[in-house]
User: Fold these one by one.
Assistant:
Number 1:
Amino acid sequence: MLQWADVRLALRWFRRAPAATAIAVSSIALSAGAVAAVFTAVRAVLIEPLPYARPDELVLIRTGIRDARESEGDWVFRDDAREILRRTRTFALAGVWGNEVFDLAGDGGAPPEALYGLKVTAGVMRTLGVAPMLGRAILPEDEAAGSTEIVLSYGLWRRRFGGDRRAVGRSVTVNGHDCRIIGVMGPEFNFPLRRQAAHTPYPYVEFWAPMELDKQGPGGGMGMVGRLKPGVRLQQAQQDLASISAGLAHEFPAADRDRIFRAGPLRDRTLGQAGQALWLLMGAAALFLLIGCANVTNLLLARGLAREREMAVRMALGAGRWHIARQLLTEALVLALAGGTAGFGLAAAAWRVLPKVAPAAIPRLAAARADGLVLAAALAAAVLNGLLFGTIPAWRAGRAGLLPVRGAAAGRRDRVRTALIAAEVAITVALVVTGGRLLGSFLALLRTDPGFAADHVVTAIVPLTVERHPSIEERSTLFQQFMNAVRAIPGVASVGATDALPFSGENHGGFVTASDAAMESREQLDAEIDLVSGAYLQAMGARLIEGRWFHAEEEDAGGVAIVDEIAARRLWPGDSAIGRRVCVWCTPEKPDDWKRVVGVVTSMRHWSMEGPPQPSVYLAGHGRVFLVARTNRPAGETEQAIRKAVASVDPQQAVLLSVDLRTLVGDSLAARRFLMLLLAATGGLALALAAAGVYGVTAFATSRRTQEIGIRMALGATPRSVHALVFRQGFAAVAAGLAIGLAATAAAERALRGRIPGLAGAGAGDVWIAASVVVATTALACWAPARRAMRVEPVEALRVE
């Protein structure tokens, strides 16, 4: 236990050695602060339970294609959702939702606003076990056709309605109709936590409205969440869903022959790959803590040698070995507590800034804050650090005798310090090389050609609701007027529209085939299938390889398609695609949707910069949501001009989004970029601490050899040979650490490859660049003391006692 007298003595010694104390506290603060900062993120994202009742019982139901694992997605069709709800034996509750955009009319001076939210069945809130902060939730009777209820998010309630509690019960105009606000969710509620839809001005769901699940039609892809019955395990739910999918395939072969349903824990599906990346970051912070530990251990060992006379005198006056060891351990723990407190301050300061740049793709990260639990974590890390770096000096002091240590004992201490330096360098190599590989992979992603000139493409989401514009003809005419107005903007070269924009989160995957035989054998091509109009492909910068573009009249008639070069090569290898037929979403039971290919274009990436591009098929049609313009004006000017152009046609039409396409591409990499930033900061600090440790040990060892160096030079040694001797002996530990670090890194990467995005795609060049940075930095730390040693004057050195 700590004795107050030992604490006072430790504080007195720290006042006598302010420089060494400041270095030790700073080292501990940096390492403990890094652990606390990363722990803050890990706790918010991975450790704290999802903000729903009994979250371990919640699962996400998914649709897969038999024998095609890559086609599995977190969605179900409307008809399938109804059948799962009717037939399940393992789910106590379940709910279905779909993305929705509402036009909120202007009122009280507020302009019209497009809101991104969800249409949900009443089962969603009941399954999650949540209730509104104000008002009531959506009830089963609200799901009837024509229902006009809406539940607001806390953010929308505060932003648009000023936090007025009287907003509940108020009617607002949504999609041209009166809609009654029935509730407001609490500030902590957000569902789904990881949003898949397009970038929007507000990165969270803003409303929940009733869904009519029983209306006719298959509907698009919808989310489905279920709560397991008490005592039911996930494997039993999987078997239940497999039985349901087999039954539907038998009863409805035209629609469900190839579909299979699966369930996964909601937490896993929500986190995606962010969880593994955060654990990697936590491991990096723990290794960084060990570097700080080694640095302070070496500092205390050096101070121990300088205090040998003091310790010998105290032992001569009756102090026991345990008392001496306890004093040194007390000093280490006091340093640790001071450094841990400072580390918490650094972590708290960091998390005042990091939430502003935290990507929405990592759920709950923006809500992370350094609090009392994080302070406890920082102090625990620092105390553990203190116990580690205080034990060796205390043990050494406890073994010391009445006379100061000389000769072999001092040599053993030098070997301990050398081993610690090798360990520091090995850990630093692991951090810097792994970070270098991930950075190299990330830079390669940034250099990857998406297939379009994102810097010169501006897009807007202009949602035309069925309520305001019931007929397809009316929506088509109005959207054409919008495109004409945008086309008239100075600097706009071409304008088009599509129902699924690359990197927006919207994708319309499906199967295409070029022959009846391939359809029968299920040897179909999994491709992105988009409806486009106007000069969409030209606006995106696609290059025509063969054939022609769509004609305006083909948008109404349909029947034609343009394929990209990947689809053309796979469907008709070695032959021209022009004039060929391609069947879209066809099955043996529904074999009639054939399109004639009129053009082949270059490929565009649709949802990821990683991996090979996906084949794409473009159909002429009226599925318009995203308006796209190619311009030579600054993106910001064009964004505002598009909003004004839309308002000039229909002042009540809201625009959900107006942004350059580069922003959407950047959003797809936001999570990787954020984690790279934190890992790069950890690696950079580790390199700085390791260099400081190498410099400190080499400089201290050199100062203790001043007499020896003077004798060598008096006997004829040249300054160059002295420099080489000191540098070689200092760099020996660095070389050992480099070898150990590279071997350990290679083993760790083999274990992590495939789990951490970016490790598999990095090249050997990234390893050598990162290793070279470590070598150069530590070599400079060895060079400086060696440079000082070669300037020693022999006469002055021989006078040193």
Number 2:
Amino acid sequence: MHRILSDLKLVLRQLRKTPGFTATAVLMLAFGIGATTAIFSIVDGVLLRPLPFPDPDRLVTLGDQVSGTEWGQHDPGPVTGPEVVIYPRDTHSFQNLGGFGFTIHELSGIGEPAQINGARMTPAVFSALGVAPLMGRVFTAQEDQQKSLVAVLSYATWKSRFNGRADILGAKILLDRKPYIVIGVMPPDFEFPLTTGHLNRAELWVPMSLLPQELTAEADASWYLNLVGRLRPGVTPAQAQSDAGVVAQQIMRGFPADVANLRIQPVVYPLQQITVVETRPLLRMLFLAVAVVLLIACANLAGLLLVRAIGRHRETAVRMALGASALTLLRQMILESLVLSLAGGVLGIGLAALAVTAGKDLLPETVPRMNEIALDWRVAGFALVLALLTGFFCGLAPGFAALRTNVNASLKEGGRSGSAGGSHARLRSTLVVLEIAIALVLLAASGLLLRSFSNMSAVDLGFNPENVTTASYSLPQKQYSTQAQIDGFNTQLLQQLRQLPGVQAVGLTSTIPATGDGLELFNVEGYVDPRGPDRTVASPSQVIGDYFQAIGTPLIHGRSFAESDNANSQLVVIVNREFAEHYWPNQDPIGKQMKVGGSKTKSPWMTVVGEVADAKLTRPDADAAEQFYQPVAQLEKDSGALAAPTDLDGNGGYIVLRGALPPEQMENALRATVRSVDAQLPLTQVQTMEQVVAQSEAPRRFNTIIISSFALAAVLLAVLGIYSIIAFSVASRMQEMAIRMALGSQRSHIVRLILISGLRMAAIGCVLGLAGAAVASNVLRSFLFHVSPFDPVVMILTALAVFALALAASALPARRAASVDPIQALRGE
């Protein structure tokens, strides 16, 4: 211990004498370790940390794989209302199994009315999750069956919307203008459903209270709910899935005739796995990117330490001549590296803390469990261990280089030149070549993502988002309990919006592009699906007013909907091009017929009166989906036997407004108009259509920006590595350069000599980097859009860019070498 303390004092004293070297090494490592730690905090919070529930490994989701859809293949799969009752009742593998669904409520009576996210849940969900409320209680099975108006608040909602009132239990709140009694408040870290991002978190929970129409035979073909459960001890997900499969066979035997051909297969996924299924590839790629940056930073540190060790070879030779052991020299070299890496690690933790705090809001909404992302002791411990490993391995190369010092040669007069041995030069060159190769791999990945994002930005969206304002609304059932009241609101709203200055077109719709899609079973007259009957599904939209003109979707054939398309006229439908080309290839779709439901569903035929362009439903880079549009006024007749007397159509959705005024003015005018029709009705998601599209592009944009940032950092570090190695090489060969010039060598020859040395390393690094990019590019395949993983243009431009930067990094030392005064250099020696 005494020797180590003595060596530590020596190391600190030597580092103080060279503040430039010390600061460069520490800052370089701080950047590498800080970036790695920041990304690891995200990986830890989202992927590695167990879910915040007791025994989270026993929590699973149960859903359906439905024939003709991709449901359940990569996600939990939805279930129907009847299945929320049947699966928990008839399966035996679950300790608790409950259903839940997402809801949006109008919260009023406490200031301005607002729409808030909520969830309908059966009490078994709380039992399965095993989290007790912070205050009060959760609802009971009896309250669920009796449809009691009770609510449990999230901690954030209790604090933000109710100011943390101590007397909140028993208080009445208005949800959809109905009085609900608050019976509980959940703990601060409770979140369910585990949605992506933070904008969609549930702010409260109410009983599922399934309505009669949600339990009818027709509801057997309506998938919109979810199941979560806790496995019994010793039961595996595979066993639970087999158990549920038996129940699924019973469910299908009870299907009504119109959906009797549908096939369902239950799937069971661990809740932890399904929560992060969309995020795992992104986070893995980010972690690989920062690992590359850290690797380059380590190579630079090793190179700097090697240069430092070679520069001190005379000192090392003197110490060895005086009896210093090889172990002592190696220990001191490693200790010096550890001091630098620990200092860089501590500073990196600070930088990571700032990055995590400032950067959480920049993460795309596809990242779940954002509240779990934090720089805690586990992440800090990871950073310190990383710093220790970095310091140890980076200290080995200069340590062994010092041990190979030739004592006799270094102590001779000619040893003053400081020329490095061939093995040392090869080691330094190898480090630089590896840095260039690794940086090129990351830069190539950045180039592929940039080109992919450029391709996505140039995609035809199928609509024109410019000058379009949108807003979401939902009419409360208490005030709008009849279809006549809903129709009156919609008619009055459209009339007043059309009269606003600058408004060019306005419409209402159940869905807008770039926000997601739903699927509905339908049947095309004369079409035989090769997969079997009742396998055809498409994305439906219900519209009112001049929706296509407002959203800017071009009409290709036929006509748009008119006011005359009502319940007393011919039933009509508009399809998109993808739909028309699939079911009526090389034919005019106008006049063709289709109906909702299966082949045996007693629903009337609708006539196609128009064909429109393919509007991107989710992301600009998504494939075109089959879509059909129905006028809301005909929905009840379109549904035929599927319709129920209690069905209400057009009671919520999106307002789409195209205008010539600036977006801020259009938004203000839209809010004012809605308040004039219903003073208490809140609007949510009031934004331009360009903002909606930008949000759908956010994940790919985030991928591109973050990888490009790391790529630029990697290239910068690699260029610094080239510069430092070339600069040292020039400094150690000053005597040689002076002799060459004294013997008549031109300064241009000296510049060429230095440049060739740098470019040789750059060329080898580029070749290795291109080979590495070819191997690594397959990792990016799922992130690319209309770009080959080994796109020749990207690869060539990347190699040229790295080569040019290497040339620039070599130019300054070459110029310095060419400007040396031979007389002074030889006299100094």
Number 3:
Amino acid sequence: MEVQVLSSALLRRIALPILAAAAAAVVLSGDGLGAPGAAPTTEVVVTLKAPALAAFGRSLQSTVHGTYLRRVEAAQDTLARRISSDIPGAEVRWRYRLVANGFAVVVPSRAVDRLSQIPGVDAVWPNIRYHSARVTAGPEQIGADRLWGPAFETAGNGMKIAVIDDGVDASNPYFNPSGFQYPPGFPKGQTQAATPKVIVQRAFAPRTTYKYANTPFDPTSSFHATHVAGIAAGDHGTRAGASQISGVAPNAWIGNYKALTIPTPGFGLDGNSAELAAAVEAAVADGMNVINMSLGEPEVEPTRDLLVTALEGAAAAGVIPVVAAGNDFADFGAGSVSSPGSAPSAITVAAADSHNAIAGFSSGGPTPVSLQMKPDVTAPGVSVLSSLPKSEGTFGQLSGTSMASPHVAGAAALLKERHPTWTVAQVKSALELTGDAVLSATGSEVPSTREGGGMVNLPRADAPLLFAAPTGVSFGMLAVGANSARSVALTDAGGGAGPWTVSTVVQQGGGTLGAPTVVTVPGTLTVTATAGQTAGDVTGFVVLTHGADVRRIPFWLAVTAPKLAGEKKVTLTRPGTYKGTTRGGASLVSRYRYPTAGDALYPGPERVYRVSVTGRPANFGVAVLSGTAVPHVTFDGNEDRLAGYTALPFDLNPYRKSYGDRLPAAGVDVPAAGAYNVVFDTRGASQAGPFTFRYWVDDTKPPTLRATGGRGRIVISATDAGSGVDRASITATLDGRNVTLRGSAPSLTISAAKGRHTLVVHASDYQETKNMENVPPILPNTATLRAAVVVK
């Protein structure tokens, strides 16, 4: 059985899943994302009357067989065209010629019955769901069942887990309230929707006309939170098809905080930092013990990241924040951990399968802007069986760091019940230092930046012996041959006092780690990293041994030898349109990081500009208007310090259909004060030449649109004083029909017949391509013009 990975972000943007509950297994691109927000579809198989080729015998190589095969293919092509014509939106998937004569087709669910009426269709076959023989048993894999107690007296009793997500379906049988009672002061929020199991029902939506935005569950689009909540705290012994399943902390209460409320083209329901931070605020005020956030967005400057600030506040208030690391590794490599997984106090979770092998999608550290050692731990996140809304099958398997995070949220609840005096930092330390090795596809242990402290081992975390602060060590970037020291405070967690043997393991990269051979607990351990001669990541562990007990502290550093520092730079002092050329420029920089992947190599000449950011602007950036130069934004003098995902030449706005598309624009949202470089690079010497670019600072306003009627046409004026109008974003309808726009901003035209017309125009500027969830408004740099226009 195939399973879908929804690639943060949702995590990109919900640290999203891989959905195997639907009849057809389709990768939903977002964490990678397409979500069940559109009209439901069904995959079926249609067959033709003529027999398949295999009906004519074992040998399929004869001339006769070849002739018949061509006839089969022609007949299938004809039928496919008829289906597409009769059922708009139908999509042919798999072709069958040898063992059957037909093909799989995805159609709107309401149109399935029409298929049998189309000439040429002999039979319509349902797409029967099969399940793999092995289902990931997450609680058992991390040892949660060994902490529940014989009468489930420590199975999360009295613990409250806040699920900040897209809305929990409290009616799912995994949340059967029988045997539960409301704790004092509950229910809270929209109490008519609460149950003694799901004790809080709140929604946090921006100003919007979307009818389900302010409901705690969206019947058309909510699905993710229901799965997440079940993993964390679904009732023990719940029957899901042929399986009997349990949440990690089955006796815990669930708080539903729906802060992903707005439908998007590719991610299902999404939400911005203002609403998400409000949900964190409410969870703390309501007395939740643990917060789970299986979502994410690109990291920005931490001191200006509202959601990171909110989670740090929650941790300071004693609420344990657990966050998915993201699902970007396959696309972006190292440095793909997202916000708010970048919150220092959060427990940031990577995903592995049932064999403790790292999931290929699971985002890797360090955090791209703040360069922290993340993720912190790993948990099951592949083919996890849990609850879904009834419309999605009631139960199903999903994959993603979204599924790993609630395993740890449940684990944190178990530890907090058993050790009520432990602080947030101590719970994190207990989980991170006691993990098991996570493996690669070849069976070797993965770098610490993929697994953190390793796969959660709850029985070991329940008796951690010592606590460490910090729990993971980042040495940041070191120049070739440089060294840097970090101190780790070690305290007794019960039975851990006394001497521990210290050793170090360097897994990869050119560097060494020095430490004393023995440390006494309580005490301070000082470790010193020395960079080697080869640029790149250095990962590993500081290993503490006490008899048969082993505790590990993950570390990371990067050896860097930046070439950008020596390049001549032109200073940009004010916004505007500029001309430049890469011809004659140096060819020193060929790649940028972090992240380390997802972008092309640029071995051709580059031209470098320098900008200084003062105060607290909302953003700055550049867009190439002509020429072949490709922009990137780095911290001053170092191509190894990209200023975040937005500094890459991609559209990163999840509310736009063009999300993920390459485009010649790069920028920084909510930047820190300081110096940055704008690098215009080329993919080869042959592409070097002149270019024109727009430089903007603090663009928070959409374009200005005006329309006037002329003779046989409508003239649209589209202007923008900030980042400039993005021509590719401009769309228009005339009397409800899509129309073609001619020309370029600021003047565009539409051909129209004489008379009065209703015109609707949408246009964005280049900054809109960089806006994402850390920018509180939805599409703040997009304008809509609705006008009645008379054509002469």
Number 4:
Amino acid sequence: MQIFTAAVPPFMKNGYVVSCDTTREAVVIDPGDEVEELIEEVASRGLAVQAILLTHAHLDHITGVDRAKPALQVPVWLHRDDLFLYDAIEEQARMFGLRAKRQPPVDRFYTPGEPFAFGRYIVDIRHTPGHCPGGVCLAIGPADSPARELFVGDTLFAGSIGRTDLPGGDHETLIRSITTELFSYPDETIVHSGHGPDTTIGREKRTNPYL
């Protein structure tokens, strides 16, 4: 599995291209303001993107959907509980003194227990509300192995956790999502967050001051 990451101002939000070495099939995760870099990575490597997968629908994680969807010609996936945020992108932007335009419609909603497949990899969808109602963890790994790497959006960071003071946020729910869903993975599991560097489940169990 190959992982390309890009982040640009003002939010420095991580967008990802995750691809299969063998088949060159891929998924794009959370295209935001760095979307041009993600599209360029796909084009330069000749990847066959299968879907745009959103971990949640806060402003910085979706502003690139309107460029990514027509460029890649693939469906956009989201948890249904975050549709109200996705549809309110203009209002979200105004909260930060910014402007944003409405994004293309969501094509598919995640179904509990139904994984998404690309190439030789499986994406297990774990609902992790708290930062927002429809937050999910995308647990990606080989179809023939239980090993996974976690793309957690803004649920968990290296040394921190997601904020819960935005619409739909709830601190107790967030902590429960982290401790019951994310911490169910082995300590060596790599965590790719929506902002900042990678970490591991074990490191956050041992050192995260919020947990």
